[in-house]
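Tokens in:
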């Protein structure tokens, strides 16, 4: 019988402290998430120092809860997986130090995981039969990538943002509209009441037509300029129309590049990952465009889209299978690149 590998995974790269127990990279026995959103909301965004302190306060209890909910003991786990980058350095260090101490005390292997690889891996939990190669669109608060996953642990970045991440753009526009933090879900909801053709916002134009890169800062400025000019003229802003028109511009950019990546690589599968993968307009547009082009579009359920440790446990398992175990010298790497080891 195949041995069941149980990995306890820890995630603390931003504003969620999470611990999970995942079997063979796909079966989630527990996935505990302590979100700090209510605290950071007051500041309109994540305050790094506050995030680190809050991770320290709860990381031990969150890990214990993950073990208890999985109905196992710490001794039952086969390895400890942990996010070591990219992310906020202070926040990463908390999870990493905890994971190292645990791995050392239990005499179990430590497996450092790239947070972005974790996001991609969330699709292996959701879609048990999924196997590389496929194109993955990673869209979160900190990252925007079109990636070709050739094999487990093998990634080719085909396009990425040159400035703001997609989620970051959502958060900034939501703030300008007075919708609060995090802005993505709020714009998603408000846009349903608006007309996406009401205002024509521009898409970044690169000189290189073949580029699959993104840029959202020009779009952000265009929305802010529109809001300012309306205020100067004393005209009332239809926030739902702004939300819908902004969202259309973001989603079309993401979907076009993801589709082009599939054509280039001749694959008929796109997996989406990251917090913005919960966006209803992105989901619908990708599914429709996928249908037209014979491309299967896969999403994780929302709880696996935003930061969580189950996705880290999944990515750690595929590293474990390749014998890639980290040393106790492992340090946090705030700007860790995809595929970098
Ligand atoms: O993956 P995630 O939890 O954290 C990072 O690794 O960055 O993503 C959080 C981001 C935030 O910017 C949030 O506004 C965005 O995901 N988000 C959404 C939606 N839900 C979360 N953006 C658009 N539509 C949504 N429904
Ligand atoms: Zn993330």
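Residues out:
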């Amino acid at each position: 019988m195949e041995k069941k590998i149980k990995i306890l995974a820890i995630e603390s790269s931003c504003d969620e402290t999470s611990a999970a127990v995942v079997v063979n990279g796909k079966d989630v026995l527990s996935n505990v998430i302590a979100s700090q959103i209510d605290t950071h909301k007051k500041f309109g965004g994540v305050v790094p120092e506050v995030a680190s302190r809050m991770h320290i306060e709860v990381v031990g209890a969150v890990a214990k809860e993950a073990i208890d909910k999985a109905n196992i003991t710490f001794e039952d786990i086969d390895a400890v997986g942990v996010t070591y980058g990219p992310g906020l350095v202070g926040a990463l260090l908390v999870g990493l130090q905890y994971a190292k101490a645990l791995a050392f005390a239990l005499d179990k292997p430590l497996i450092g995981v790239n947070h972005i690889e974790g996001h991609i891996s969330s699709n292996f939990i959701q879609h048990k039969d999924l196997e590389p190669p496929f194109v993955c669109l990673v869209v979160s608060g900190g990252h925007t990538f079109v990636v070709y996953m050739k094999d487990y642990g093998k990634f080719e970045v085909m396009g990425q943002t040159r400035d703001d991440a997609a989620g970051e753009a959502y958060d900034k526009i939501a703030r300008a509209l007075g919708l609060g933090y995090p802005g993505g879900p709020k714009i998603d909801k408000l846009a349903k009441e608006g007309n996406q053709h009401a205002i024509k916002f521009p898409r970044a134009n690169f000189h290189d037509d073949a580029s699959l890169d993104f840029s959202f800062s020009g779009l952000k400025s265009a929305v802010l300029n529109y809001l300012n000019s309306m205020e100067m003229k004393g005209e009332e802003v239809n926030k739902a129309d702004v939300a819908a028109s902004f969202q259309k511009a973001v989603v079309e950019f993401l979907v076009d590049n993801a589709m082009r990546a599939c054509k280039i690589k001749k694959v008929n599968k796109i997996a989406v990952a990251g917090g913005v993968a919960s966006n209803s307009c992105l989901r619908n547009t990708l599914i429709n465009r996928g249908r037209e082009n014979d491309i299967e579009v896969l999403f994780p359920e929302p709880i696996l889209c935003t930061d969580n440790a189950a996705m880290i446990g999944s990515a750690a398992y595929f590293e474990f299978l390749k014998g890639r175990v980290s040393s106790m010298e492992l340090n946090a790497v705030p700007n860790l690149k995809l595929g970098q080891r």
